Amino acid sequence: MISIFVTINIKSGFAQKFSEASLGDSQGSVRDEPGCFRFDILQNSEIPNRFHLYEVYKDEAALEAHRNAPHYKKWRETVEDWFDGDLERVMMDTVFPSDQGWIKQKAHLLDW
């Protein structure tokens, strides 16, 4: 499994809108993408206009499928003008849980 940690700074006054708009992308990712095993949206406690996304995918092909998914394209189109600067991305390989552990956890992500 691979993971990506994205840091996004949002222009002042758009944090709430960004948070609300991002729910559709995260929910669509875990619900509609077989290769997405986690999609967390985190708001920085010290810098409220900074958000972090933690995502886990089966492989690069699953990440690419995410970037081509309708919910991602809608999200990106909606929020892109709210970005304050460039996004920061860190690519990682998962260590724990195991691949099988990620697969078993996915069902629990669908119980909102």
How would you describe this protein?
- The protein has 112 residues and is of the alpha+beta class.
- It has one domain: Alpha-Beta Plaits (2-Layer Sandwich), CATH 3.30.70.
- Helix content is 42%, strand content 27%.
- The protein is built from 4 helices and 4 strands, in the order E-H-E-E-H-H-E-H.
- The protein has helices at 15-32, 60-67, 70-79, 99-109; strands spanning 2-9, 36-43, 50-57, 88-93.
- The protein has a 4-stranded antiparallel sheet.
- Strand 2 (36-43) and strand 3 form a beta hairpin.
- The longest helix is centred in the first third of the chain and has 18 residues, at 15-32.
- The model has no long low-confidence stretch (mean pLDDT 94).
CATH C-level name: Alpha Beta
Radius of gyration: 14 Å
Report the total helices.
4
What is the overall pLDDT average? 94
Sheet/helix structural class: alpha+beta
Number of strand segments: 4
The CATH topology name reads Alpha-Beta Plaits
